[in-house]
Amino acid sequence: MTTAQQTQKPTSAELDAADPLAAQREAFYTPDADQLVSYLDGNSLGRPLKVTSANLASFVHDAWGSRLIRGWDEQWMDEPTVVGDRIGEVALGAAPGQTTVGDSTSVMLYKMIRAAVDAQPGRNEIIIDRDNFPTDRFIIEGIAKERGASIKWIAANPASGVRAEDLDGLLGERTAVVVLSHVAYRSGFLADAKGITAKVHQAGALMLWDLCHSVGSVPLNLDEWGVDLAVGCTYKYLNGGPGSPAFAYVNASQQDRLQQPIWGWMGADNPFGMTESYKPAQGMRRFITGTPPVLAMQPLKDMVELIATVGMDAVREKSIKLTEYAIALSEELLVPLGAEIVSPRNPAERGSHITVDHPLFADVTAKLWEKGVIPDFRPPHGLRIGLSPLSTSYAEVELGIAAIRDVLSDLL
Known about the structure:
- The chain is α/β, with parallel strands linked by helices.
- The protein has helices at residues 3-7, 12-18, 50-64, 70-74, 79-92, 105-118, 134-147, 193-202, 222-225, 294-310, 312-333, 361-370, 394-411; strands at 38-39, 99-101, 125-129, 150-154, 175-181, 206-210, 229-232, 247-250, 340-341, 353-357, 373-374, 376-378, 382-386.
- Strands 2-8-7-6-5-3-4 form a 7-stranded mixed β-sheet, sandwiched between helices. It has a 4-stranded antiparallel β-sheet with strand order 9-10-13-12, with helices on one face.
- Helix 8 links the parallel strand 5 (175-181) and strand 6.
- Helix 3 packs across helix 10, helix 5 packs parallel to helix 10 and helix 12 crosses helix 13.
């Protein structure tokens, strides 16, 4: 065997053949080849499971169509906390009674952050990084204006992400809550949730993690890390579908202390008592507001159960291998054309997507979509390659990045 043969990298076909999770791809709906060549945006919207179509039809026929209003007494009243507990068990590292599903990510963030600020008289500062997702920043700007609070901004390097030392000089006796994304939406940087949470607690403040880009792709241990609050969406790696409801986690130690600001009948102590004034329910139910989106919860339940059969450790192992492969291909095919990989090279500091920068990537992305190759673009120059471990093959990654190379070459 020659030296070249000894060092030859495995092909995508060989990697797919050796992938212990390869069979799971068959669980997902896949469009015809003339509609989709390569899907590299699982970090924005996950593919639907084949079983979801049948399960939704069954729900419409049986639970909704046959049981009608009786469904509320029989199951639906508890659906937000039952589904929340299952997400907590499978994907969050959370004991029962700490997670609920409902509302949008924005509304959940508002409720949790406002509750954190209101619960701590004398603490009126919120800390967040300037490169966090716009919703997080906008919600905090609105709360600060509403409550007369101030914002302290972390000016971390977007490529390297927020580290514990970036909080030095910002945390203090007036800090109410720190809000950070566990996986940065631009670069895919994976923050040290345990270490940062501990540092925030040393200052007497509360810690809220946005889990939108980590839940379902990175193992989480919220209870073990001592996290106070967390919010996440379910349409990315939990494959709940467009606009599927968000979830909120509130550590049991904080539930009696916090009062969420949007009072509604479903979060009341006696929802059907039609009482004159509001009294919050005990436990996690107090963080519910209005009628939960029961129908919209059904698809994500299918994905949570698939993850449960595989295990988050196996999901994470596949995620690391996929992103390593995507980085190697980008180095080979895109960097020589002037592209720059801006995601962490250390897999311990990287979620399940990578970002590659080039001034022409806005135009490249538009042309790729016309060809059925679907990454996504984030200004100013970032093309994101999002790899959903259970539905993405190595061949798909190779096809996609080769297509990026071809379109970029044509534009240069």
